[in-house]
Amino acid sequence: MSSSTDADEKKKESFNAEAASLLVNNLRATFASGTTRSYEWRASQLKALIKLCDAHEQQIIDALYSDLAKPPLETVAYEIAMFKNSCKAALKELKRWMTSEKVKTSIATFPSTAEIVSEPLGVVLVISAWNYPFLLSLEPVIGAIAAGNALVLKPSEIAPATSSLLAKLLGEYLDNSCTRVVEGAVDETSALLQQKWDKIFYTGNGRVGRIVMAAAAKHLTPVVLELGGKSPVVVDSNIDLKVATRRIIAGKWGCNNGQACVSPDYIITTKDYAPKLVDSLKAELEKFYGKNPLESKDLSRIVNSNHFGRLTKFLDDEKVSGKIVFGGEKDESKLRISPTILLDIPRNSLIMREEIFGPLLPIITVDKLEESFDVINSGTKPLAAYLFTTNNKLKEQFVMNISAGGLVVNDTALHLAVNTLPFGGVGESGVGAYHGKFSFDAFSHKKAVLYRSFLGDAPVRYPPYTNIKMRLLKALVGGGLLGIIRALFGLS
Amino acid sequence: MEINGEFLEESVRELRQYFRSGSTRSVTWRKNQLTALLDLVHKNEDAISESLYQDLGKHPVEAFRDEIGAIGKSATYSLSCVEKWMAPKKSDIPLLFFPAKGEVLAEALGVVLIFSSWNFPIMLALDPLIGAIAAGNVVVIKPSEQAPACSSFLANTIPRYLDSNAIRVIEGGAAVSQQLLLQKWDKIFFTGSPRVARFVMSAAAKNLTPVTLELGGKCPAILDSLTNPSDFKLAVKRIVGGKWGPCSGQACIGIDYVLVEEKVSSHLVELLKKIVRRFYGDNPLESKVISRIVNKQNFTRLCNLLKDPLVAASIVHGGSVEEKHLFIEPTILLDPPLDADVMTEEIFGPLLPIITVNKIGESIEFINSRPKPLAIYAFTKDETLKRRILTETSSGSVTFNDTMVQFLCDTLPFGGVGQSGFGRYHGKYSFDTFSHEKAVMHRSLCLEIEPRYPPWSKFKLEFLRLAYKLNYFGLLLHILGLKRYK
């Protein structure tokens, strides 16, 4: 009996700056003891994470269903399977990642050898988001652990079932002396941000991203900020419309009902082609989600009433009234909004000024498709940009002229699953990247090491400085054996 | 002209427009600018030497070795590699996504701001500039006002050689820096002290601007008891060169203090004195081989470090200062108190504390109980000690059996960790630091994977499970209806 009261007491105890400081000190002591450094420890932790997934799949599905009504298939495919894959890939590559990289040295430092050694940064903080609460918590954790760090994970309180499941499961499966989970909201996050970390990895929005970076600045802590933006889809007319449409739908509503950082945010297409695209979207949407998508079990719901209100405001904006060509149904009690398409909306409407992060898809029309580049470049740099076309010249121009975290031609969102590609933003969409080896690197310090010997010492380095030393020095620094020989013989 | 907020805003706007025009993207533009920079350096060697002498009393050989020569080498290397660096890097895409192509494309960040420092005022402005140009950006350089002759030189000379639509020098002090930080940049590259770095990063946070911070720290030199006397002598020579050679100790990777076993400390002191006398003569001020202290403020700071009576008592060589010329002679301290300022702050001057330990292995704990430095130097032939230093300490870099030369290696990243900073440059790392690595994936509209799409079913779920495992055979069986699933 008393133990449950104690547990309640503990929960009620707020996690303040003092508690955060104590936690960090504990982790620092563990890190200093060297526990996290060995290959064996890192591999054991990664294996434990895989076991966690296998043993608790149903619980994870249930938690995500509770937090987001996420369809079980989405959870299994996009959260669990993707995560397990990353773990396995990390396990396979870990030894190689941990090996130091030998580098060439030039005549300027002859004789010498050099290498770059990867070392952990120390004690790191991972702050996760609510939309892929399992994946976005644990994917960075793979990198942190693989790189040999101690860490604190702060899952999003907006996905509470997943948050508490993570706290429970990580507590059971991972080495608690090195990895801890802190649950909570603004107060707890602020307490954590006041501490000195060796790296902070944040996934979320730009507003909080600024707060995180400002807090990091006080301690000169490097950060990775995985943010978002308005990811545009440019649709050309010379394509297989059915395939393109399905891929757009899969990336938009198939990814947490549009609540994903790389979801297509809006479409740009020509005035002529737009009606065909709209018809195709309507037809495929019905095939996927039935005649009553508001009831479809294959779509996530909106995460909470805050976001429901935010999305409803977009539809209430008078600039877009009359522009809804499909959907627009809402059910506040169930926090559901049906897949909604808006056609030909003005560029200055509310929905075009912020990241939508929901099931609303505006279509902007232009006279010539080339104009779409200006539309995209007039906004801030998004996390992703997509183009559907068979025109190779247009593809080339798109790749060269559109700046975004990542680009995909003829598909959407898929690049997330390719761990040989760095995943991260630029400008407003973020700083830094991860996935695959990029995760390992994000949590490592690459230490330069130069080995010199006692053989041979160029007297040119030392005073007293003479003219001949100056000549030799010029030749030595400038490189080139010939130059050195000439200088030695006084010929330069 | 007055440098106020309005002027800076307009400048940044112009630079951004020029960047948007695409002129800085071409490999021709980048190579032209790098060539022009080489031209600038070669044709103005004397003027640069003169400015460095004026600002810091640097000897022309030191000026060449540490600044002019280094820039020339860096620009030449970048010129020969820039095209290679600009080429997209292919990434392997799993068969599952066939047909697909993946690559990473380096793209310019846009409008970048470089803050240079006063101790290597030419090099720390131009070396980052090389990276920014190679990566195709437009640049504002803010040289340090503490080195006014060099700042002036850069402001007057850069417009004569480089494309002033793309590269501008803005001179001024703290007020101008603050105004600059109010603008929106795509990258800020800062070399300087941790204190100012915090301001820079806080300002950058307002716009989510990525930063590289090249700071400093107390860089230790561990001197093991080398059994071969000529090795020991060579090590001490290199320590002297690495302490007073670069700007009289005012260098971020200069040796701050030495750790040595108690039993060889007196031998070390003797050797140090001998070599200092050999290099700098009996009257170092007159020899004109060592730089002076940059300004009154730093001079006073360094003098104050020596005023502590316990520190003064530990002086075993030197200690005399000459205020008129802002000169402090090479000074050696033996075991000053560890809680004195001289051992708690980065010295950045010509004072060399020698800290004795019982066993050289204790150096590791000593270093680890202090903030991570930009460089650790270790003179030893003991492979076990080398391994321990490498794995048990953390620093920007480690150099064995020498000092400073890691700086000349274009293949090694140059940057700090912890309090010594983050981010890195030199060689390709300079190019990378001013680039965004954009992931690009090409897919084709044929060959569709149906199970990607709802409505969901057990079949589709199993398909995706197998797909993620890249279990192609299993997938085949599954599609043919020959595999059982849960």
TrEMBL record, chain A:
The keyword Kinase does not apply. Gene3D superfamilies: Aldehyde Dehydrogenase, Chain A, domain 1 (3.40.605.10), Aldehyde Dehydrogenase, Chain A, domain 2 (3.40.309.10). Residues 17-449 form the Aldehyde dehydrogenase domain. It comes from the Eukaryota. It catalyses: an aldehyde + NAD(+) + H2O = a carboxylate + NADH + 2 H(+). This is Aldehyde dehydrogenase. It holds the Pfam family Aldedh. Coiled coil: none annotated. PROSITE patterns: ALDEHYDE_DEHYDR_GLU. Keywords: NAD, Oxidoreductase. GO terms for cellular component: cytoplasm. GO terms for molecular function: aldehyde dehydrogenase (NAD+) activity. One of its GO terms (biological process) is response to abscisic acid. It comes from Arachis hypogaea (Peanut). The active site is at residues 226, 261.
